[in-house]
Amino acid sequence: MMSSVVRLLSFVVAAMIGGAVVWWMGGSHEAPPAAPGPIAAPRGPSEAVAQVTEMPAAARVRLGGYVEARTSVRLTAQGPGRVTFVAGQEGERISAGQLVVALDEDALAPEYRSAWAALSGEMADAQNAQTQLYQNLYGQPTSPMGGPAQDAYERMTVPFYNMAQSFMGGMFPGMSGGQNMPFGNPYGPMMTQAQAQRGPAAINNHRADYERRMAGLAGAQSRIDALDARLRDRRAVAPISAVIMKRHVRVGDVVQPGQPLADLADVDALDARIEVPAAQVVNLKAGDQVPVTIGSQNLWSTVGQIFPSASDAQRTVTVKLALPAGTAAAPGMYVVAWIAQGAEGNAGALAPAIPTAAVAYRGSLPIAFVVDQRGIVDMRVLRLGDQQGDRTAVLSGLRVGESVILNPAPHLKSGAPAERRY
User: Fold this and answer.
1) The Cα angle at residue 188 between residues 185 and 189, in degrees rounded to 5
2) How much is the pTM?
3) How many CB atoms lie within 10 A of CB 422?
4) What percent of the chain has pLDDT over 90?
5) Could you tell me which residue, 156 or 44, shows the higher pLDDT?
6) How many CA atoms are closer than 13 Å to the CA of 282, on its beta-carbon side?
7) Dist CA 360 CA 358 (whole Å)
8) Order of strands, sheet of 81-86, starting from the edge strand that comes earlier in the sequence
9) Which CATH class is domain 47-56+351-421?
10) For the purposes of burial, counting CB atoms within 10 Å of the CB of 329, is it exposed (0-12), middle (13-18) or buried (19 or more)?
11) Is 163 helix (H, G, I), strand (E, B) or coil?
12) What CATH number belongs to 74-104+234-265?
């Protein structure tokens, strides 16, 4: 029994000696760690500070709108028919004069051939009437019905007849005229048939026939022109170089007059369309520069058009802002414009200005951290104006001469000490 107790004690003593040796060799002479307490916020490098200066700045009101093409066209059907051709899909570019949509021409083909046949007949009749008129004016007169003998008889007898009429009228007044006189001739001297062919009545008859044929020729040509116009209406042609924004028909569809075929737009020239309150539109004029935001883009646009009247429902005036060429935008995109308001919009007015790097945000509120003379941080809520380069105008919240912290840390709060770094 004693031997068992001795062995147990020797084992305990050996274990204690081994533990002491291990502790000594490990060099763990430090005190055990203290209980965890509040952790202090890490201090970064000393803050960079900038002075509040002045710059021209306009107070602006934010207005939403949308992007639209400056030039857009809707092609519509001018007559009933079946679609036989469509130029392409939405988004494809087409050039000016290019065929976009075509309708069938089967119903007009017979009318077109008939009109050309009528025109050919009128041309032949007009040519014949012209020849007859020339012959009547300048050609040799033809022999009368009796032939040369009859012609010779008329040339011999008619002069004597006219002379006798003149003689009897001189000797016996009243005998040479009057329808009831036995030898009277109420129509004056007699003409031969050859003379009658050159008479005013014959010439006028041929001239009138020629003019009727020319009028018929013009009428036949007008029918051809009308059919040409109807044939042109079967083809919808792009009036400008544009992009197909939407096509309303496909090959095989049957359309009626007035039905939309395709919408085209020139996407290289874009406008921002906004609705400006009537009280603010007086601060705008054509040619003014207005800042706009499209997605992540901030750019300047030019006032291109101000509508002459306000909307009856909203009492706003439509204003179009010309976007710079090459703007990464498309019709229908949302746009935000910043319009100067009232006297605060005077570009000559000065306002405090700070580097844009000094502006931070808490939620949606812009703020800045001011360092006072004691080196204590004070958070200010700002109302911002225009941004020019790397500086932003401050309409309220700061005074000229104060110092603000650049690139403030996210954990920075009012009342914290700050070290300046110049």
Assistant:
1) 100
2) 0.53
3) 6
4) 32
5) 156
6) 4
7) 6
8) 235-237, 99-103, 81-86, 254-255
9) mainly beta
10) buried
11) helix
12) 2.40.50.100
